[in-house]
Amino acid sequence: MFNFGDILMFDICTVFGKLLIAAILGGFIGWERERRGRPAGLRTHLLLCVGVALMMLVSEHIFVNYQVYKSDSVLRIDPARIAAQVVTGVGFLGAGTIMRFRASIRGLTTAASLWIVSGIGLAVGSGFILPAVFTTIIAITTLILLPKAESEMKRDKYMTIKMLIAGQEHLLDNIKSILEKNSVKLQV
Known about the structure:
It contains seven helices and two strands. The protein is mostly helical. Helix 2 runs antiparallel to helix 3, helix 3 runs antiparallel to helix 4 and helix 5 packs antiparallel against helix 6.
């Protein structure tokens, strides 16, 4: 029979507090993604972080409830198993945000932000609040400040040029020397 006292083994204020902290931290990162018009935005990140925090709380709750089973029991309780499955599952969720667009790949940063939000949720759910807050600060700083620095970076440009020269192979040496003078590396 259900015993309400079992729920109170975990302080209800602590549980609500952890879920609220997860919502706030996941919401910060989601806000930044939403602001940039990314497909996984505020709601997705907030829900993911709260959901993962809840999964971690459930994992700990199961562990506490089944501590009566000793090492000689057939039943093995490992609170890290749910966390491990979260990491795998969020990998699939993140993969769904990665799209090929013309010659580039889009969504990698959003996939990474979903992955880090799940880590933040696990940390909050397990009571590792301060590292979760620091991780959120690092993630927000990365998402907001680094695009400005990246836009100032000089980048290499890659192009593929295919040439078909028939009957005038001596022209190839002239073309090679012109390209090399302009810092173009050739792969023949």
